[in-house]
Every structure is written in structure tokens, then in C-alpha cells.
Amino acid sequence: MTPAVVAQDLRHAYGPETVLRGLSFDVKKGEFFIIIGPNGSGKTTLLKILAGIDRSFQGSVALLQRPLQSYTRRELARRLALVPQLAAEAFPFSVQEVLLMGRAPHMGLLGLETENDRRIAEQAMRFTGVSHLGHRTLDQLSGGERQRVFLARAVCQEPAVILLDEPTAALDLAHQIRVMDLMARLQQEKGVTILMVSHDINLAAMYADRLMLLKSGARVAIGPPGEIVTYQNIERTYGCRVLVGTNPLGGYPQITPVPGRFLQDASDPAPGGKLPDR
Amino acid sequence: MSPRPVLRRLALVSLPLLLALLTTIFLGLGFGVTGSGLRAIWEALLALDVSNVVQQTIVWRIRLPRVLLAAEVGATLSLGGLIFQALLRNPLAEPYILGISGGSAVGAISGILLGLPRFPGVSATAFAGSMATLALVLMLSSGRHILKKDTLLLAGVMVNAFCSAMILFLISLTQDSRLHNIIFWLMGDLSLSDMGQVQLLALLLAPCFILAFLLSHAMNLLLMGKETAMVLGVNIKAVTLTLLVATSFMISATVAQCGLLGFVGLVIPHLLRLMLGPDHRILVPACILGGATYMVGCDLLARIVPRQGELPVGVITAMIGAPVFIFLLRRSGK
């Protein structure tokens, strides 16, 4: 299999604070690849580098066997889409207008759409189940609906690779599954490479072909979920106790975080000590 | 291929606005200190009564340049407001409030006192002044937090206060007859206009207007967020820089011609956004036409409201604009 993304020895720092320290990995074409790790592990920075937003890194990234820096913004936008973290503010663009914005890298300067652009936008709306929202404006939508609109916009770009930054973070259970299912379908039916950052280890283990575990800007482990989601790996990365079992649906690993009151271990004291007396 | 909805909407919006502008211009030509009545104007316009030389002169030599200048200035200021609001993603951004107009006024007065000609001398010093204040405001509200509404407004208020002090200082150095002119000009004055000025300004403004329209879709994408715009293929550095420089340029060109006119860039873009939605491909032409109509109307009021003489038009725009600003500020705080 040819690689979609190859990152070699990525280093990045915000001032004195090092965020990525020599990270290397590759993502195969058509793979569902999920990056997990605690807050501050460098996941979002990594995604911004891959999306071509942050160009102040060291090391090399190749997208579809070409150095990332060699693409113009427009060329990049035809191959790669980003679904950002859900923002609170929204301008009153209609859902249709937002989807046609996804066609921007394929259109002229003024963004005048052709019949073909409109057809692609309609397909994307049907695919993500937002057709009935076409004339509503963004500010009238719920978080879950808005997230699906942004997924649809990414689909409109007709990219080879879609990057997603915690797409399920602010969503309820039904919307979480819906978003993940849509991505899995894109991967299987269109061969799109999915590269996602996630906080939800159990969800990630059910969908990903491979997981990468990230801590303090370095790789802890990379491989199929069954090999990566072990209690040793998770405890080492997150610094908390977990149980790892098997998901009743099949061979997927499933973690259960262990609340402090179940821990008898004196070597693992709860942080913060005693609460002050009232 | 079926007609594109955007173009159809653009025509649907532009035609009524154009009609409104032409009507207002016609009214602007019809009323003045020597109120000649609509019918006489109509005759003068159609050159029906060639014998009435005085009336011909009033309409063609005095009122027409003034009305056209008002249209140009109104179009520029409201387009400037629209662009700043999109680039800074801040609904309260406006050339006057951000201190950009004040900066170019300092530049312009310096130019006048140095004895430079109106063009290119005073226009150039005004442009330098506006670019300097723009840089200063962006620096003060700096870097990462540039999008924060309050920081930006505060920086604008401070820069404006400094510019006002500079202006008063420069005026205090002036003792001769230029004083009255400068003060009147500061309040926004359209009365000193001739056809040559109008044509020159049109030549300077037209490329900026065209540029703004060409980048209107990029402004739409920018509204979705800087990162989203990047990932959708917008070269945001180039777009932002082009628009900022073009806007400063056209603002300083109008300030050099007719002084400080506040809040136009706030009132018109907001009104039109409420009516037409956020698509800048519609809003850019609409702001040009709507802003022109508004300013011609304000100028008309400035000429007919006082019993004697006339008001500086800046008084009218501020009296309408400042309450609108307060209303918007209260609403955006919720």
C-alpha cells in the first residue's frame, strides 16, 4: 500500500515550550487512522502541521508522495480537508452556502458555482443527512447538525485525505456514532484516508485500522487497536488506572477508567491530599 | 447551464439600490440654499431652459460635484467598514472608530500646513497617516488576540484620542485664515468640491472597489475562521494585506478630500447585512450603492435643515451613527 502521509522527525516549539519532539509515523492510503493522547500531548499541533496551517515546524511531511510545502494552498485544498473543532460562534450563512464554500478550491475567484458543483453539494448533503437543513442558517443549527454540515463541506472538497480534530467531543451519543459511521463509509466507499484526533479511546478502538498513542509530543505506541489499547500503554500515557476488557460487539478492546475509591494502593495517592476543614 | 443564483440575487439587489441612489442624487440636485424647486431642476437637467444661466450654473457647477463627491465618500466609507468588519471578524470595526480616519486626518493636516498641494501631496501624507495608525492599532490589539473585540476597540479609542490631540496641537500652530477651513473640513465638509476633484477621486477609488469585489468570496471564507479559510485554499496573508492597504488607501483619499465623517461604515453595512445576509459578493456592491445613497441623503439634510447656511455633513452622520453604534454594542454584548 502506498502511503498517504509520511511524517519524519517532526519537531515543533511554541517559544521555549516544546510541543513535538521528533515524531515519525506514516498513514496508508485509505486507512482510518486515529491519534489519541492526553491534553497537551501535541495532537492539535500535529493536525495543524498536516493541514498546512502551521508551517513553522522542523522535519518533513509528505502528502501523497510530495513534500507538503511544495503545494500551494489551492492545490492542498483539493487533496486535503479539515473538519475543525466545533466553534461556538457562527455567521448566518445558509447550509447550502457553507457547502458550496467547500467547492472553493475547485472554483474561480468569485466562487460562482457550476451545475456540477451544485450536484456535488447536494450529494454531500444527502450523504451526511442534512438535506432538510439546506435553507437554514448555521446559527440556527444544533452542535450535532453543525458538525455534520462541516463534514459535508469537507466531502464537497473531494479530498483524498480528511483530517478531523475531535469531531465527537461536543456531541451526544447518537451524533457521535453518526459522525464516526459517516467517516467509516467515506473510507470504505470512496477510499478516503481518514486521519482523526480523538479523546474517546473506546470509540476510536471500534473504528480505527490503526491507533497512534501520543504523549508529550512523542510516540508511545502505534498499531492496530488490539495491540495498542493495553492497560500498560494507557496507564503510561495518561497516568491513571484503567481496566481493559473486550467489547461485547467483538474483538475490540474496551477500557474502564478506575475511580480513586477503588484504589487501595498506597503508592498511588490521590492528588491534592486532604480537603480543607469547613 | 442555468443562471447562477448569486448573480441573479446581485442583480435583484443592485437595481433597486441604484434606483434609490439616482433618486437621491436627483433630489440632491433639486434642493439647496437657493431652493429652485424640482421642476426647475428637471428643466435644467434636460437643458430645456437654456436662458436661465444662473440656475444652470448652480446645478451643474455647484451642486452636481458636491452630490457626486458625497456619493463617492459614502460608498468608500461604508465599503471600508464592511471590509474591516470582515477582516477583523468584529462587527464594531469601522475606519473612524478604529482611528484610521483620525490618523489620515493628522497626515492630511500636516500636509496642508506644510503647504503641499491637495493632490498628490496631502493625499500622500494622509495615506501615510492612515497606514501608521492601522499598524499601531493592530499592534496594540496585538498578534494572537487580534480578534478580541474589546482590545481592538480600546486600542482604537486610544489611537483616536492621540490623533485628536495631535490635530488640536497642529491647529493651535495655525493662526491665519486656514483655521476656519481646517475646522470645517475636520467635521466633514463636502462644500469645497469641483468636478476635477470628483473625477480624480473616482480614478483612485474605482480600482479599490473592483479589488474588493474580486476578493468578496475570499472574505466570505475568512468569516468561517482563519484556519478554515486557509484549508479551503485562501492565501489569507495576501488577501488580508491587499484589502487592508486598499482600504486604507481609499479612506485616506476621501479624508484628504473632505475630512472626517464618522459611523457611515457602521450604519450602512449593518443595515444591509440585516436585510441581505452575510454574502460579501452581494454586500460589497450593495454597500457601495447604499453608502453613496446614504451620504447624498445626509448631505441633503445638512443643506436643508438649518434655517440659515448649512451644517457640516459630519454632524448629521455622527448624530445618526453614534446611537446606532451604542445599540449595536449593547446587542453584541448579549
CATH class of chain B, named: Mainly Alpha
State the largest interface. Answer: A-B, 34 and 27 residues
Q: Radius of gyration of chain A over alpha carbons?
A: 20 Å
Order of helical and strand elements of chain B: HHHHHHHHHHHHHH
Structural class of chain A: alpha/beta
User: Structural class from helices and strands of chain B?
Assistant: mainly alpha
Provide the CATH architecture of the largest domain in chain A.
3-Layer(aba) Sandwich
Helix content of chain A: 25-40%
CATH fold call of chain B: ABC transporter involved in vitamin B12 uptake, BtuC
Primary descriptors:
A: 278 residues, alpha/beta, Rossmann fold, 2 domains, six-stranded mixed sheet, 9 helices, globular, B: 334 residues, mainly alpha, ABC transporter involved in vitamin B12 uptake, BtuC
What does this structure look like?
The complex is a heterodimer of chains A (278) and B (334). Chain A has 278 residues and is of the alpha/beta class. Chain A contains nine helices and twelve strands. In chain A, the strands form three sheets. Chain A has a six-stranded mixed beta sheet with strand order 6-7-8-3-9-10, sandwiched between helices. In chain A, helix 4 packs across helix 5. The longest helix of chain A has 18 residues, at 173-190. The model of chain A has no long low-confidence stretch (mean pLDDT 90). Chain B has one domain: ABC transporter involved in vitamin B12 uptake, BtuC. Chain B is mainly alpha-helical. Chain B is globular and about 65 Å long. Chain B has helices at residues 5-30, 38-45, 53-87, 100-113, 118-140, 149-172, 178-186, 195-214, 216-223, 226-231, 236-258, 264-276, 280-304, 313-333. The A-B interface holds A 48, 51-53, 72-74, 76-78, 80-82, 84, 87, 91-94, 97-98, 101-102, 104-105, 109-115, 137, 157 and B 1-2, 4, 6-7, 214-218, 220-221, 223-225, 227-228, 230-235, 277-279, 281.
